[in-house]
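Lab notebook, design round three. We kept the backbone fixed and only want residue identities now. Task for the bench partner: fill in a sequence for the structure below.
Input structure tokens:
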């Protein structure tokens, strides 16, 4: 059986006033985190925030591309696209 997983683009806004999801920005989900973009803190905060929203372990959230960019490609394992959309409250654009 193939492991469930979802891949989608994220536009990350570090140093925001609060963590949250701001809908879509083009073909990416706009995510705000309060962490600064220093020493991987914003990436770590993004993984933690997404994992908490999806009720998953942060190890199930992988940043495939965009380690040093606001535009990232995330891979979430162990969950269906429908469950991600329901938990995040947003429809994911197709890649």
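Proposed sequence:
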């Amino acid at each position: 059986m193939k492991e469930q997983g979802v891949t989608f683009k994220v536009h990350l806004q570090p140093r925001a006033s609060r963590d949250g999801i701001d809908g879509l920005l083009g073909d990416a989900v706009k995510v705000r985190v309060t962490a600064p973009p220093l020493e991987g803190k914003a990436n770590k905060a993004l993984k933690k925030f997404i994992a908490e929203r999806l009720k998953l372990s942060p190890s199930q959230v992988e940043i495939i591309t965009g380690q040093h960019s606001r535009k990232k490609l995330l891979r979430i394992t162990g969950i269906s696209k429908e469950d991600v959309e329901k938990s995040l409250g947003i429809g994911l654009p197709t890649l």
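Keep this in mind before ordering anything: Residues 57 and 85 are 17 Å apart (CA to CA).
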